[in-house]
């Protein structure tokens, strides 16, 4: 169980996340929706501790992880894997090694040194990585450089990397915002599969209300850093959307699409 | 309308005059500074004119006395190429030693520079202390010339190539480390966040998220440094730190004029050959890795 208690993050004068209270039972797939700048991204990054909370607490199974550092922090990060909008793979490394990066936090003793110096993982770990890639139809790409893959493939490689961490949570920060509809569906299917078959708790930031309704057990809507809706997907009616955001669902979708187009262009630049 | 054109033109002319005045003033100041610094450093035109012919004279002295009829004769015949290069075997050996010194020093220096470049890259957030320490250390190694390091190391390790290798390696670490750190600072941090979010340590993130991205750049810098180090290695022997420089210094101080030109020619040939080779290698490496 993941509990957020009064979680707040301030950047100077602006408050990106404002006193978020959330309890997520194990195995749930939660969609976090909101317009850009609503604080969804900062919220997920705080849970993984890529951002440090200004105040509030994060509890995992009753254990406070807000102030962890050193090895404790690395093990917490290993337990709550992250997937990013821009995939964040090492472009010039092959796909297999990218996936094996998920094993870094598991290395101990001299193996840790071997991995650091020579990037030598064990045969079991390579088998794990190949099995994960095969599961999402990417086994053939194992020795290709990550930069040669399409966005949708790269995102599925990122999910493989996350799986190799053997995490309990998967935090997906706008995983489909840079993808076309077909690849978006593949990636969302992969996330659902991970949730159903591996039993991971999935928190996924989304722009598309329809996607959230289709895939998630529960929808949390954010506005200006606060949670303004937290209920089953069925309860998010067009009337509720208009009440929360002041715009119709079509306008919301159009805004999300415009953002996707804007985000897709620099994504290709970053690869080059 | 025409009023707007006229006033616009007037403003343009005024701006042009202003810029011209500033440029002229700048040049006048520059000329003044040049004159002042020439005076301080005693670079008088008269001295320059008096000394110029003597450069020519020196070169005419060190030129070998080659004769066409005996050009290809043996080492015993005066005027032959073999007579001029009569110690080619030991000089060639010294040149090889020099090239080896440069290669080893580049390897050691670039390796040390690489290790220091990660804490010295601002974007990786190694902590203020590590950042300041590595930056200052790199600066210190870079600012001290090789020849000064060599003087100290010859005193410590005795006359020979080891002192030269270490001296060049130290300077290389400083020079490469700074360039490496800047290459690292220019890489995106997406992969870094990816590795860190997976529980990777700082060192693991350096190794897996940064190193593969910057490797072609770093390799290219290191090879360029190898070319520079070859030149350094051929003069560092002046202070007894090994290589062909020792021999060059000896023949210069004993005024063995023909041998000076022979060694100089050999050094130039070797440097050119390695320059060409390493440039090819560099381009191939970049092509293969990019």
Automatic annotation (TrEMBL), chain A:
Transmembrane segments: none annotated. Coiled coil: none annotated. GO terms for molecular function: ATP binding. PANTHER family: AMINO ACID IMPORT ATP-BINDING PROTEIN, PHOSPHONATES IMPORT ATP-BINDING PROTEIN PHNC. Residues 2-249 form the ABC transporter domain. This is Phosphonate ABC transporter ATP-binding protein. Pfam families: ABC_tran (PF00005). It comes from Belnapia mucosa. Keywords: ATP-binding, Cell membrane, Membrane, Nucleotide-binding, Translocase, Transport.
UniProtKB/TrEMBL annotation, chain B:
It is found in: Cell membrane. It comes from the Bacteria. It is a multi-pass membrane protein. Keywords: Cell membrane, Membrane, Transmembrane, Transmembrane helix, Transport. It holds the Pfam family BPD_transp_1. The keyword Ligase does not apply. The chain crosses the membrane at residues 91-118, 147-170, 260-277. InterPro entries: MetI-like (IPR000515), MetI-like_sf (IPR035906), PhnE/PtxC (IPR005769). The keyword Lyase does not apply. PANTHER family: ABC TRANSPORT SYSTEM PERMEASE PROTEIN P69, PHOSPHONATES TRANSPORT SYSTEM PERMEASE PROTEIN. This is Phosphonate ABC transporter, permease protein PhnE. The lineage of its organism: Bacteria, Pseudomonadati, Pseudomonadota, Alphaproteobacteria, Acetobacterales.
